[in-house]
Design goal:
Length: 1017
């Protein structure tokens, strides 16, 4: 009778989690229960498992609705039925095929119609659902004759009166209306909750036929699902045998290219891995990945295979990864072993520009019926909860902004806000909408609709209705097809060098950059702005502290920067031991043997597993629990607790001191979900080196491509500055020299038209396209005749200096533009065969002040180009010390003048702490630390130049200034508005800064770490 239950996966409708739904069924002693979420199967697999666990018969299906109108409830008689329902919903979601209002052609599905939507004819498996409150209607003549096809229907949507109110709020959110404006039709019935079975049967006691029909219907439903069978595409060829033959052939061909067939160690490793891959039946998985990479290579795209897949020499030989596992002592078992029954993920990055082409290839190759993106449930978040709930209560925008942006403790105490808090808290962790997983692709053997309906988000690739955890649980393993801007920068730089210099750089040959002397010099001083993964202030600081001078240290640095290693204190300890290799002892022989390369410090996920197995005496399955916890997959707190108990029991039996065991486990625990495997770090290190090689030897081209790929950690201005520091001459956009993107002619860098914020993309692309087609623009009038452009856009181009090739001053061009365009609409004004000579106007000579152009540039581009920000200051003072000399001033107080690049907020118990990154008047970078007590008196006041007073602290070659005082320094008044005081400061106030937020605790100081440096017996 509970044949129409909704969980909160009925988005913005249901209020009960799957766990709560099953728990309620237990409390009401139900033997059978149906989950029928609205137009989705998201929860059926978790529901099935929970019901089986508690000896409840699971009935699964879908509540089919169109524009909030319930058409019917579909219940699966068997597994085939779910496929039928999914295909109907998929056609509706993805192809706009109308859902039939009556008699859908679903052979294995039971259909229950609500009383308001009864068809003219009912087939054998079609019924009418009757609620307790609808019994009186049965005695109408037209319904009385249908009693033989009726079943009891007790829908469930909420548990309590409070949850009914929550349901109404969700409906208001969904309909973008006020709660008071909802109609009865918008919400569920007020009786849609669990009721005692006896009470329901009592209502139908005079209608035994309906009770009997309900029992028969429940008996008919027999959905069973095999979770143990892999659901991924099984073979790349036509059989397991042929897959293995092809994989073996490709592996040995790759072995010859990567090593040589007489390399006994490599050959033995290939043979060993192939045997495991074959036994686990994963040849097809490797070959599908290889095929995708092959297509990428044919298209000339760059990719990075990272994650634990780089532990495999077969992956290396196939070209999936570029990390030699022998060089870095990466062991295959971290990636694949006979205890592991599910295939691991291959994480592969492409450039953000080419990823969609790769995705299209996958969808075409394997067919849209077999490929889809993993879904993900986007939950209600703090800001969206208060904003959405407040809107449903009718609060004005100002109050919504206040609720969303201020902490709860600062909210006004009134009755409406109290309601918003009360129901907002209930919405925490509720799914709000379904979205696309950022990278996970499923490729199935059977049609994917056998398992899920598909939805079509705006991105244009179909998604399944469950997330990656459910996908893995039912037997799918995703292929992670990721994108990043770093690869785009590398590929574009190589292409630009070829175009501009005629030099071919084989950047895929990793030997050209690994351990190259000049690259190592740049690494050791943190000169890495623009380079993937190693350009952030924290990473550059770490490289300097380590004096990082080789590939292996860079691999370690890529991992120790991660929160797990850093916050446990192991990052600081690694830095100490790296700089003082004779000033510590390994505190146990296992650490010396297993972690000698990293000074006895656990740096990678593999290190944690090594210590758990070899020091803690844990079993391989326990090690796998730790691995999954550290990689963020299926973190089971219960399983982790068992591992912890085993660890301490085993350590006691092995005779380890309790204090040492506690310290070791503290380090292990700190890794959960926040560390890299060594292969992942190595993959990042290779890409970082590739970026660095290009930055060192082709700095201008590299920075131009970093700008065009949207930079990375910093805003465009920083990359423009870096290009200038590399010897480039920076030029404002020009209609005759600029492209849509930034380009370079020898050392002259012309900023792209794309950087003019108010210029439409269409026009920014049209101007260079028309120029290439019909020649350079000869004048302002000539451009106006060839490009459909309005007066405001022309004025912007004039102010940014895009017509400076004419030799005319800006005011002359502005007057000319107004003569040509006043009262006319933008249109194509085609050139005529005989052009009339351009009219010349005699205009008074107006003297432009030296810095007017800079303020135009700040307004249009966001930063000055013609001069440095320091040139615009009222003061001529430039500080008592420059960034390059800070290391000589340890513990001394310094005064510096600096331009703000970025700041990072780090919450602490005493308030928010900031870390700043700046450039001095010579253009060099340095870093500052700002404690809460200082910030109260001397806060940041937006982008611009500041006078800083602080004490230099040099920590292993890296200076940071702890700020005591700071003040923002005024720019000269904007000469364009000399008569308007308010306007004359506007441009300076618009200067930007990069602001980031982290919720991590500050890294512990050395005295807080307490990690032993002596042997513990």
């Amino acid at each position: 009778m509970f044949l129409n239950c909704h969980s909160y996966h009925s988005l913005r409708y249901g209020t009960i989690s799957i766990e709560e739904l099953v728990q309620q069924a237990l409390e009401f002693k139900l033997k059978a229960l149906a989950l029928t979420d609205i137009n989705t199967i998201t929860g059926i697999y978790d529901f099935y498992n929970l019901c089986k666990e508690h000896s409840i018969k699971p009935i699964v299906g879908v509540d089919v609705r169109v524009q909030d109108e319930q058409l019917y409830i579909c219940l699966a008689k068997n597994q085939t039925a779910i496929g039928e329902i999914n295909r109907m919903l998929t056609a509706y979601n993805c192809d706009e095929v109308e859902i039939p209002k009556h008699n859908p052609k679903l052979k294995n599905t039971i259909i229950i119609y609500p009383i308001h939507n009864i068809p003219e004819e009912l087939s054998e498996d079609e019924y009418i659902g009757i609620r307790s409150e609808e019994i009186n209607l049965i005695f109408k003549p037209e319904l009385k004759k249908l009693v033989g096809k009726m079943v009891i229907l007790q829908p469930v949507t909420f548990k309590t009166k409070q949850e009914y109110n929550l349901h109404c709020i969700l409906r208001a959110i969904d309909n973008n209306t006020l709660i008071s404006m909802l109609t009865e039709k918008d919400c569920c019935g007020k009786t849609e909750t669990f009721l005692p079975k006896k009470k329901i049967l009592k209502a139908f006691e005079n209608l035994p036929e309906i009770i009997a029909n309900t029992a028969k219907l429940i008996e008919k439903c027999s959905f069973k699902f095999d979770f143990s069978t892999p659901k991924n595409k099984r073979f790349f060829t036509d059989s397991r045998e042929n897959d293995f033959k092809l994989l073996t052939k490709l592996a040995y061909e790759g072995l010859e290219k990567r090593y040589s067939c007489d390399n006994a160690e490599a050959k033995a490793r290939v043979e060993k891995e192939l045997a495991v891959i074959d036994e686990l039946k994963f040849s097809g998985y490797f070959l599908i990945t290889w095929d995708i990479v092959q297509y990428s290579s044919k298209m000339g795209f760059m990719h990075v295979g990272r994650g634990s897949g780089a532990n495999s020499i077969v992956s290396y030989c196939l070209g999936i990864t570029d990390i030699c596992p022998l060089e870095l002592d990466l062991y295959f078992e971290r990636f694949l072993n006979l205890n592991r029954k599910t295939p691991p993920d291959f994480d592969i990055d492409w450039s953000w520009q080419t990823r969609d082409i790769i995705l299209e290839y996958i969808f075409q190759k394997y067919g849209k019926d077999h490929v889809a993106f993993c879904g993900t449930n986007v939950e209600f978040k703090y800001r969206s909860i208060f904003r959405e709930v407040g809107k449903a209560f009718g609060l004005p925008k100002e109050e919504l902004d206040s609720l969303a942006t201020r902490p709860m403790s600062e909210h006004d105490d009134n009755s409406v806000f109290r309601f918003v808090h009360k129901y907002g808290k209930l919405l925490e962790k509720f799914p709000n909408q379904r979205s696309m997983h950022s990278c996970g692709i499923l490729i199935s053997e059977e049609p994917i609709t056998n398992f899920t309906a598909l939805e079509m988000p705006p991105k244009g690739f179909p998604i399944v209705q469950f997330d990656m955890h459910v996908a893995e649980n039912i037997g799918f393993e995703k292929f992670d097809i990721l994108s990043q801007r770093g690869l785009g920068t590398i590929k574009d730089t190589v292409d630009l060098i070829k175009e501009k210099k005629g030099i071919t750089v084989d950047i895929k040959d990793t030997t050209i950059s690994k351990n190259e002397a000049r690259c190592n010099e740049f690494l050791s001083i943190g000169k890495t702005i623009g380079c993937f993964y190693i350009e952030s202030p924290a990473m550059r600081g770490l490289l300097r502290r380590l004096k990082c001078e080789n590939y292996k240290v860079l691999v370690a640095a890529s991992s120790i920067i991660r929160p797990g290693v850093a916050q446990s204190g192991m990052m600081k300890e690694y830095i100490f031991r790296h700089n003082n290799p004779t000033k510590f002892e390994y505190f146990h022989d296992v650490f010396k043997k297993e972690l000698g390369e990293t000074y006895g410090i656990m740096v990678y996920q593999e290190d944690v597993i090594k210590i758990a197995l070899h020091f803690g005496g844990l079993s391989a399955p326990d090690g796998d629990v730790l691995r999954r916890a550290m990689s963020g997959k299926g973190r089971s707190l219960t399983a982790l607790q068992k591992v912890k108990d085993h660890f301490f029991e085993s350590c006691k039996q092995l005779g380890h001191p309790e204090q040492l065991s506690k310290e070791v486990y503290r380090q292990i625990e700190s890794f959960a979900g926040y560390s890299f495997c060594k292969a992942h770090s190595a993959s990042y290190a290779v890409e970082s080196y590739q970026s660095l090689y290009l930055k060192v030897y082709y700095p201008i081209e590299f920075m131009v491509c970093a700008i065009n790929n949207g930079g990375g950690f910093y805003r465009t201005e920083v990359y423009v500055h870096e290009a200038k520091m590399s010897g480039a001459i920076i030029n404002n956009p020009c209609v005759n020299r600029s492209e849509f993107q930034t380009t370079v002619y020898d050392k002259d860098v012309y900023l792209g038209l794309m950087h003019i914020e108010s210029l439409e993309v269409r026009l920014a692309e049209m101007i260079p396209t028309e120029r290439k087609k019909n020649g350079e623009y000869t004048s302002l009038e000539n451009l106006i005749k060839r490009i459909p452009i309005g007066i405001e856009t022309i004025q912007t181009l004039i102010f940014v200096g895009a017509f400076r090739f004419t030799g005319k001053q800006k005011h002359e061009l502005l007057i000319q533009a107004r003569f040509l365009l006043t009262n006319s609409k933008p249109e194509y004004r085609h050139l005529t065969l005989l052009e009339e000579p351009q009219r010349e106007y005699k205009l008074p000579e107006i003297k432009r002040l030296p810095f007017e152009d800079d303020f135009d540039e700040i307004e249009i581009l966001g930063f000055p180009v013609s001069h440095s920000p320091f040139d615009l200051l009222q003061t001529k003072y430039r500080g008592s010390v420059m960034a390059k000399d800070l290391v000589k001033h340890h513990k001394r107080q310094v005064k510096m003048l600096a331009y703000l690049i970025s700041r990072k907020h780090v919450p602490t118990k005493r308030g928010t702490m900031f870390f700043g990154t700046w450039i001095d008047a010579e253009g060099e970078y340095f870093d500052t630390a700002h404690f809460p007590n200082c910030l109260e008196q001397y806060p940041f006041q937006g982008g611009g130049c500041y006078l800083l007073l602080g004490t230099v602290e040099v920590d292993f070659h890296f200076p940071t200034i702890t700020i005591h005082k700071m003040a923002k320094m005024p720019f000269i008044p904007d000469p364009r508005y000399s008569m308007d005081k308010e306007k004359s400061g506007e441009a300076a106030r618009s200067l930007k800064e990069d602001v980031s937020m982290t919720f991590r605790k500050p890294y512990p100081q050395e005295h807080e770490i307490g990690l032993p440096r002596q042997k513990m017996l």
